[in-house]
Amino acid sequence: MSDQLRNEIERRRTFAIISHPDAGKTTLTEKFLLYGGAINTAGSVKGKANSKYAVSDWMQIEKDRGISVTSSVLQFNYDGYCINILDTPGHQDFSEDTYRTLMAADSAVMVIDASKGVEAQTIKLFKVCVMRHIPIFTFINKMDLEARDSFELLDEIEKVLGIRTCPINWPIGSGKRFKGVYDRETKNVSKFTAVSVGGAKSAAKEEFSVDDPNLKEEIGDELYEQLFEEIELLDGASDEFDQELVDKGELSPVFFGSALTTFGIETFLEHFLKMTQSPLPRESNEGAIDPMNDFFSGFVFKIQANMNKAHHDRIAFMRICSGKFDATKDVYHVQSKRKMKLSQPQQIMAQDRKIIEEAYAGDVIGIFDPGIFSIGDTITVPGKKFEYEGIPTFAPEHFCRLVPLDSMKKKQFMKGVTQIAQEGAIQIFQDYLLGMSEIIVGVVGVLQFDVLKYRLENEYGCDVRMEPLPYNYIRWVKDPTTDLNKLSRISDCKKVKDMKDNPLLLFANEWSIRILLEHNEGLELTDFRKN
Ligand code: G4P
Predict the structure, then answer these.
(1) pLDDT class for 451, splitting at 50, 70, 90?
(2) Which protein residue has the closest C-alpha to ligand 1 atom 6?
(3) Best of 18, 19, 20, 22 to mutate for ligand 1, by most ligand atoms within 8 A of CB?
(4) Residue in 29, 45, 48 to alter for ligand 1 test, most ligand atoms within 8 A of Cβ
(5) Angle formed at CA 197 by CA 227 and CA 105, multiple of 5 degrees
(6) What angle is formed at CA 483 by the lines to CA 481 and CA 486, rounded to 5 degrees?
(7) Using a 6 Å cutoff on CB, does residue 258 contact ligand 1?
(8) Is the pLDDT confidence value at 52 over 50?
(9) What is the DSSP string of 277-305?
(10) Phi–psi pair at 410, nearest 5 degrees
């Protein structure tokens, strides 16, 4: 492998930012881009107006632009690194794609609102990161507002998420009394100075050594005393930084800051880029494939249908896992056993799309899908036949019965739901006994119901009725030969099968899952299915 290729791959950092809505993910992303020089003013990534749009606006946006506005990968250079941030849609557009995006990231940044702590959506996304054993970095945001006690926040992360934490810096006060952060390695205090919202990249840095006699005056007696007490407590009780544990996803380095006021962002980026890894090897049916391999390979982790009726194409998002992608060369799609050229490979940004000629392991590109790709497919060079490990199917949380209004159009209806399900936005199930005559749809985020209805009507000419079902939990039965009719205490659940006849159960709450397990010894249930 050439030095140039190795260097390109080594300098790549591909990560996702996970958080509960409103914790500050968009603001933080924007500040990263400001540092990288990719944008000039804040507010240009994805305005609030877009991220909180109503369904109808969303449809309009999709139609106008021909692709989801939420599908974005932001690439920029900073300090010699080439950074790819994978967007994880989080508001109403939270969907299975959000989970799948994490399958393409090498690490994750978890943004937590300092006044709220660990929230529901963070927990869900965090679980996927843990499943993959990728490094997780924590940014505790909004320190300029009244925050919860820092020790309490760390405790909550450890207890609720089950990961050890290691604060890299430590806040001095919060809200109106927020004075800055103490760096545990350099033993310097950076004084808090807010930078105007859309403005300059960084505030003039004011740093004090913790031994500086002026520090007391700067932060006040009370916070000064408190800082020393807390440093002592931290040094005695918290986990030490250990790169190996960070790499395995067992220890999360923690940073405090304020994205809105651009405080603590540069420090975070600098530490993070050093502590996180360049593209990782990925498992395949022929063993792990090293990114530094000479040959190009990648896998599809997301498929986005075009909402524009005039263009029935789809865009497949591919994570490049090894070597260099060269748009002029033939590639091989392992699942269809076809050699092809990928037409118009592009980099997809929040605002626009750019045709690219080459990309490297770690990058994510969008490729036109004439309807042949499925989620998890492997694309590589002709001559190779290995397949990357599949992407799991994650548990949907909302269910409805889907009834076609025109019984003459049953065939169109099935074609439509099957195709849309293949793209991965929805999952379809059939009744355990009635089979296909009762179709049940499951989604991770409710917006997908509207998208489904809209698409069935507009693309397949099928009007449908959706009857909501009172279940929020689905579990795969680990042993597919289990006869669900023979289980005890099953009356509370709904029995279904997927399209491959694997048995599943729908539950209204966690309590009914527990009861079922208690009354059926040996029964094993899972909340995702390995593909
Ligand atoms: P999200 O992508 O995680 O959903 O969060 P986003 O960045 O959109 O931030 C949610 C709200 O929190 C925004 O306010 C944003 O300005 C604010 N925010 C983010 N980081 C900080 C911070 O460090 N300090 C303070 N004080 N606020 C922060 P909004 O009023 O909902 O939107 P906007 O009108 O400001 O755009």
Answers:
(1) confident
(2) 24
(3) 22
(4) 48
(5) 80
(6) 150
(7) yes
(8) no
(9) -S---B-BBTBPBPTT-SS-EEEEEEEEE
(10) -55, -40
Cα 22 to ligand 1 centroid, rounded to whole Å = 6
Q: Which helix (H) or strand (E) holds 377?
A: none
Rounded CA separation 39/93 (Å): 24
Give one DSSP letter per residue of 117-159, joined into a string: BS-HHHHHHHHHHHHHT--EEEEEE-TTS----HHHHHHHIII
CA distance 147 to 221: 20
Measured by CA distance, the residue closest to atom 32 of ligand 1 is 48
Cα 46 to ligand 1 centre (Å): 12
Q: List C-alpha distances in Å: 214 to 208, 258, 507.
A: 8, 24, 61
Which amino acid residue places its CA nearest to atom 25 of ligand 1? Answer: 142
Cα–Cα distance between 384 and 388 in angstroms, integer? 12
Least confident of 34-43, 142-151, 321-330, 485-494: 34-43
Residues 6+ apart with CB under 8 A from 488: 519, 520
d(CA 190, CA 256): 12
- pLDDT tens-place string over residues 279-309: 999 999 999 999 999 999 999 998 887 655 5
The total of other beta-carbon atoms located within 10 Å of residue 482's CB is 17
Atom of ligand 1 nearest to the CA of 21: 4
Q: How many residues does the chain have?
A: 531
Say if ligand 1 is within 6 A of residue 259 CB. yes
Between CA 75 and CA 77 the distance in angstroms is 7
For residue 491, the model assigns a pLDDT of 87
Nearest CA to ligand 1 atom 33: 48
Q: Mind listing the pLDDT tens digit for each residue in 189-200?
A: 999 987 755 555
Encoded tokens for 458: 């507009």
Q: Quick check: CB of 265 below 6 Å from ligand 1?
A: no
